[in-house]
Design brief:
This protein is mainly α and about 180 residues long. The protein contains four helices and two strands, in the order ααββαα. Helix content is about 65%, strand content about 5%. It has a two-stranded antiparallel ribbon with strand order 1-2.
Amino acid sequence: MSLELAQDLQQRALAAESAEDAVRLAAAFHRVARGLRQTLALELKVIRYKDEAARETQQAAGLAETARRAEADAHDQAVEQRADAVRARVGDTFWSEHEPPDWRITETGRELPLRPPEGDPIWDRLDAFLDEARTREDFLTRDVHRLVIEACDAIGADPTLIYAIPGRRPAETTAEPAAADSS
């Protein structure tokens, strides 16, 4: 509308019959044109502001998504580290369950026995326990030793071989049969 008014004033000023009308119409044209320029500049400023706000919003959303992913990755890594710690500690119960004849002796001295092979069903039971435990909200904050005891109980290992548990006695170990005396 301001543009149409400015164009109309320009046409009338050019077509004015007297100098006085031309001056008056030129002054009116100047005021209207100035208002038009200011309006256009303000509209351009608003458009730029909206574009900048949209860019900032998009950047903030991108940063928030990156932070969320980093937090999720850190959480997943912490969960895996906790599960690995429980798995390793449960494996220690197998070392402790073996009697000395099962130990491998090398030139350097005693060496711990091998843990059950990866295909052993006990590891499947442990993995099932850890899969369920990972879903608990307190998995990362819960005492790792408590998790190890629960895991041992879940898979049938004896946690008293690596922990002194009040009110719980160690399981009886079966001694190797004595070799017959041939003398």
